[in-house]
C-alpha cells in the first residue's frame, strides 16, 4: 500500500531548483552548565561559552534521505533547531526552501514537516481527532483514513496521547509531521522504540516520501537503520562535520577493500598463531567477547586459506563465520571513538 495523493503533489516539487536546505558555516554557542565548564575547560571559547555547533556546512537535497549522525551531544539537534528557525545561530546562514527560517511566513512553515523526539503532541487528545485537527490547517492534506490505517493508529484511537506507548506516540508524531504533505521533512529518531512491523512500515513510508520528491533530514542512533534508508550522510563530532558524502562514498571512506571477518573459536587466540603475515598486511584482530573474534582490514584469499589451514590443523571449525564489508557502524565508531559522552 502506498500513501495516496502524495506522489501527485510532490513529484513537481522534486524538480524545484536548488536544495531544500542549505546551511553554511553555522555557529551556535551556549552558556555552559557549571558541570560542563568544569569537565571540559578546553571546549570553551575565550568568552567562556560552549560552541555546540562550530562551522557546520550541510545540504539537504530533494528526493533524498539525508542522515545526521553523531554521538550524544555532538550538535545534531542544535543544528536542526537553527535550520528550523527555532534557535537563532551566532554565525553562518540558513536557507530553508530558499528563505530565511527566522520569522518565516505561515506559508513557508506549512511546507516543512517536523517530527520531534518527544513527540511534542497535546497529551489530552485522542490520536485521530488530533490528526484531523492538524490536517485542517493544510490546503492539501493527505487522506487521513488511509494514513491512520497504514500506521495502525486506528487500533489505539481510544487512548489519549498521554497514555500511548512510546512506539504508538512515535507513529502519531510521524503522521502529524507528514499529513500536510511537506516538501522538507525533519525526522528525529523516527524508528527508535518501534516494533519490527511498525519499523518496516515507517521505512516504507520514508522511501515513498523520498520517491515522491520530499527532502528528508533524519537523525538516528540506529546505524543499521541509517545504512538501510539514507542516501546521504553527515557525521558530526563536537559541533563540526567530520565526514559527509553519499552512503556509497562514506562506506568506501578509508579504503574500498576494508572488510570485517567475524568468527567464534577458542578463547585467547593470537592473530600471529594462524595468520603469520596478517599484522604486516595491516589486519587487526580483536577478541570482542570470550571466543568471539573480529578481523578487519583488506582481507585477501590467502588470509582465508591460512585461516582454514589453521582450523584443519586443530581439527575444528568455527561455530559461526561471516565476512562482510565495513558497516556504517564500524565507520561511526572509528570516527567518534569508543568513549561515552
Ligand atoms: N539550551 C542549551 N543550553 C546549554 N547547552 C545546550 C543547550 N542546548 C544544547 N546544549 C548543549 O549543546 C551540545 C549539543 O547538544 P545537541 O542536543 O545538539 O546534541 P545532539 O547531537 O542532538 O545529541 P543527542 O544525540 O543526545 O540528541 C550538548 O553538549 C548540549 O548539552
From TrEMBL:
Keywords: Antibiotic resistance, ATP-binding, Nucleotide-binding, Transport. One of its GO terms (molecular function) is ATP binding. CDD domains: ABC_DR_subfamily_A (cd03230). It is found in: Cell membrane. InterPro entries: AAA+_ATPase (IPR003593), ABC_transporter-like_ATP-bd (IPR003439), ABC_transporter-like_CS (IPR017871), ABC_transporter_ATP-binding (IPR050763), P-loop_NTPase (IPR027417). SMART domains: AAA. SUPFAM superfamilies: P-loop containing nucleoside triphosphate hydrolases. Pfam families: ABC_tran (PF00005). It is a peripheral membrane protein. Residues 36-263 form the ABC transporter domain. This is ABC transporter ATP-binding protein. It comes from Rothia endophytica.
Amino acid at each position: 500500500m502506498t500513501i495516496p495523493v502524495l506522489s501527485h503533489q510532490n513529484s513537481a516539487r522534486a524538480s524545484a531548483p536548488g536544495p531544500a536546505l542549505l546551511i553554511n558555516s553555522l555557529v551556535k554557542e551556549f552558556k555552559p552548565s557549571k558541570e560542563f565548564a568544569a569537565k571540559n575547560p578546553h571546549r570553551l571559547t575565550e568568552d567562556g561559552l560552549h560552541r555546540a555547533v562550530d562551522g557546520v556546512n550541510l545540504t539537504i537535497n530533494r528526493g533524498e534521505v539525508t542522515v545526521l549522525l553523531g554521538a550524544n551531544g555532538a550538535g545534531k539537534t542544535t543544528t536542526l533547531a537553527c535550520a528550523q528557525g527555532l534557535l537563532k545561530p551566532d554565525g553562518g546562514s540558513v536557507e530553508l526552501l530558499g528563505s530565511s527560517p527566522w520569522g518565516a511566513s505561515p506559508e513557508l512553515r506549512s511546507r516543512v514537516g517536523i517530527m520531534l523526539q518527544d513527540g511534542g503532541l497535546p497529551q489530552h487528545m485522542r490520536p485521530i481527532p488530533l490528526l484531523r485537527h492538524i490536517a485542517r490547517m493544510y490546503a492539501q492534506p493527505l487522506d487521513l483514513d488511509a494514513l491512520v490505517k497504514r500506521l495502525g493508529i486506528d487500533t489505539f484511537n481510544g487512548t489519549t496521547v498521554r497514555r500511548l506507548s512510546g512506539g504508538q506516540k512515535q507513529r502519531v508524531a510521524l503522521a502529524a509531521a507528514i499529513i500536510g504533505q511537506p516538501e522538507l521533512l525533519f525526522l528525529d529518531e523516527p524508528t527508535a522504540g518501534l516494533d519490527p512491523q511498525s519499523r518496516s512500515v515507517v521505512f516504507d513510508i520514508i522511501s515513498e516520501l523520498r520517491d515522491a520528491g520530499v527532502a528528508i533530514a533524519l537523525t538516528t542512533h540506529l546505524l543499521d537503520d541509517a545504512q538501510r534508508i539514507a542516501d546521504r550522510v553527515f557525521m558530526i563530532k563536537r559541533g563540526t562535520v567530520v565526514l559527509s558524502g553519499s552512503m556509497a562514498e562514506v562506506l568506501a571512506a578509508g579504503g574500498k577493500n576494508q572488510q570485517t571477518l567475524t568468527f567464534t573459536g577458542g578463547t585467547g587466540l593470537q592473530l600471529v598463531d594462524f595468520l603469520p603475515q596478517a599484522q604486516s598486511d595491516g589486519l587487526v584482530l580483536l577478541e570482542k567477547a570470550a571466543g568471539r573474534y573480529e578481523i578487519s582490514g583488506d582481507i585477501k584469499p590467502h588470509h582465508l586459506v591460512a585461516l582454514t589451514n589453521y582450523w584443519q590443523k586443530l581439527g575444528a571449525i568455527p561455530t559461526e563465520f561471516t565476512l562482510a564489508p565495513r558497516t556504517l557502524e564500524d565507520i561511526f565508531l572509528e570516527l567518534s571513538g569508543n568513549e561515552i559522552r
